[in-house]
Every structure is written in structure tokens, then in C-alpha cells.
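Late entry, evening session. Most of the bench is empty. Finally got around to the prediction I had been postponing all week. Sequence below, unchanged from the version circulated by S.P.
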Amino acid sequence: MIISMCPATTLTKQTCGPIYALVIASLMVPAVALGLIAGALAMEGGAFPELKPFWEFLTMLNRSWLGTVLVPGNYDPKGWNGVWPNSKMVIYHEPGGVIKEHIERWQELARSGADVEILDACYSACTLVVAYVPKERLCFGAFATLQFHLARDRETGKPSLDATQWMIRQYPPEIVDWIMERGGIANMTIPTFMELRAPSLWRWGYRKCKRDR
């Protein structure tokens, strides 16, 4: 299940383009204005403390990609505008894609300090999340899987052994051993995947998420 209005996207930062962003922004402007008023009331002299959670939510929202949409000149539909610091990133289904883009995304996620919940299939370049985000900040739901396959050259579409070898070297030792026990690169293809399921990851010290899909 992909929780998004965009095709082949995840709860990591991606959008459908400027038109979609403007629609969302127009819906959020009144909420942000109300939030500013509520925040001022909540913070001034401790008045209306029951509004504080709402204000904190809007502050966190402003740090997300949607906050960049609401500030003129900040929106980049193809860019990576970060994640919510010290909160959670939830991945329901991630189809993978360009390795370089995923490296940048996971590096930014690692720097943010956010915890990551993986609740469904994490394919291809998505699996590099385990190379960048510390184990103690990752959890896997009961339906979560890491899906490994042979990388391919983006321009030619042909298998890339060099890219595949590089990716394998980035994974934690227990995952490298798991791949090698199944034949490593010699048993990998582009269309088929080696499926590493959550129970194995739990045995290796990764946390079990408190919720599933």
C-alpha cells in the first residue's frame, strides 16, 4: 500500500509537482494562520495550555517539505528539503530508484536524528537505509521486507556489477552474510529479488515496530 497521492512515491519527501503543491499550500494557509494565533496565545503567559500540542504540531509541519511550499522561493519539486527533526519517518512501500538520490536522502535522514519505521517492502536502492541510519533508530513491522536485486546502469538498462558490489559493501555485516549465503551477486538478477523478512532482522537486533501497516 502506497500512502500518497503521487504515483510510485513514499512518505519520504516527494510531490506531484507545483500544481499539487499550490493546492496543498492554499489549504494549509488558514491552518498556519490559526496556528500562529494559537501559538501566541499559548506561549504568552501560559494562557490556553491545551493549545500547545496543536502549536507544536504546526511547528513540526513547518519544518517538513510542506513548510517549504508555504515560503515563496523555497519550493523545489525535484529537491530533497529534509525530514522532520527528532520525529519519525514512516516507510510503507518504497520502490527504490536512483542510487545517488537515495544516498542523499538517507544521509539527510541520518543527520536529522529521526527514527525510521519500515512497515512494508523496501526495494532496491531503498535498502541502503540500513547503511546510513543507525540500527537503534530503525524498526521493522511484521510485514516489512528488504528486497535486494542486481543494480542496473540507468542509461543502458544493463546490469551493473560494480554498483551492486558497492551497495553490498555498504550493508551491515549480518546482511552481507545473508546475501552471500544465498549466492551473492552470482544469484542476483534485475527482475527478481532476494527477500529479507522482518523476523530475521529482529533476530539481528533491529527493533520491532509497535504498529504494522
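Two things to note before I forget:
The beta strands are 88-91, 115-118, 121-123, 138-140, 145-148, 194-197, 207-208.
The CA atoms of residues 169 and 176 lie 7 Å apart.
Will write this up properly tomorrow.
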